[in-house]
Amino acid sequence: MDADPAPPRRGRRRAGEADARAAIVQAAAEEFAAAGYDGVSLRAVARRAGVDAALVHHYFADKPELFAAALELPIRPDRIVAELLAGPREVLGTSIVRALVTRFADPATRTAVLALLRTAMGHEFAGRMLRQFLLRELLQRITGALGLEDGERRAGFAASQIVGLMVARYGIRIGPLAEASDDEVVATVGPVLQWYLTGDPPPRRS
Amino acid sequence: MDADPAPPRRGRRRAGEADARAAIVQAAAEEFAAAGYDGVSLRAVARRAGVDAALVHHYFADKPELFAAALELPIRPDRIVAELLAGPREVLGTSIVRALVTRFADPATRTAVLALLRTAMGHEFAGRMLRQFLLRELLQRITGALGLEDGERRAGFAASQIVGLMVARYGIRIGPLAEASDDEVVATVGPVLQWYLTGDPPPRRS
Q1: How far apart are the C-alpha atoms of B172 and B36, rounded to whole Å?
Q2: In chain A, which residue's Cα lies nearest the Cα of B180?
């Protein structure tokens, strides 16, 4: 990957498509780190990369896609959430957990997401960037789909359990959680997310 | 006027004591990092510190206390859990969340615990150390108190929500979670922990 930190090289951008895309991704990473998620426009990324804004749009359909590329995320969390929200509402909780454990079976995804969480916990700018992305592209989508007055708060509590599952099962790997099967995790945590999001109570556990 | 050139005896002895304690804490930090939580004995710490084992016992009642000192944790998680488990079982979930938000109101505690989680996520040895401590001193205590066959698994799921609350509300500070009052967090997350631990279903949310 072209990680040249040199300032924009306007007249020199002739080196081919791979270079142009890499320059855009590099510029996006710098913009997101400096301005947070909300503060970044594709236009500003184009300016920093020394390319035309149309070229940014040529490679990246929208800001979440550019964000995933800049952070080297092998998944598109916003698309996963959109898919889940298009499914049946009464199994939303278990669908979310199923999507998580399935994606996290891939070590590259696991590593990238955990590194992002870890960085966000330790650096103010990275924290703000992730915070804004989560709110704008995930929580507010869920809120809109739920159509509930306190949807954003509900989505926030659900997010805490999702983050906790990532960190405790895959990050710290707390024994009983790391050893549980995917099915058991889905069956146990799914009803909790359902309760947070929709208010449907989980069954009594024996 | 006292012109004795020898340094004051009492002052020197105090400095000696502080040095011995510091040497023990330093040795403990190294032992925990090298051998994990389970692999450390107070005897091995004494050996590494070059002091008598009795001196380690003089300063530190037990391994959890030494662990908290070595990691500069301003709280004793094992004692907090013991207190909570001594309280009424039917409000265990809300009691845990109340204890967490109350302790985390202190920035020193918040910072120390989040730094520990962050390190444990990024370093294999630190991860193993925290994993073993959590299992031995927290989860297995809870399991014993619950007296349920799958208590360890239940405690593991509860731990995932507790860790998630720490990371999402205090670490990444996801908007709606960071803005929620302590009371709302206790009222919302408490029933989830109760369900994980005892199986009591939370109320239907309107």
Answers
A1: 28
A2: A153
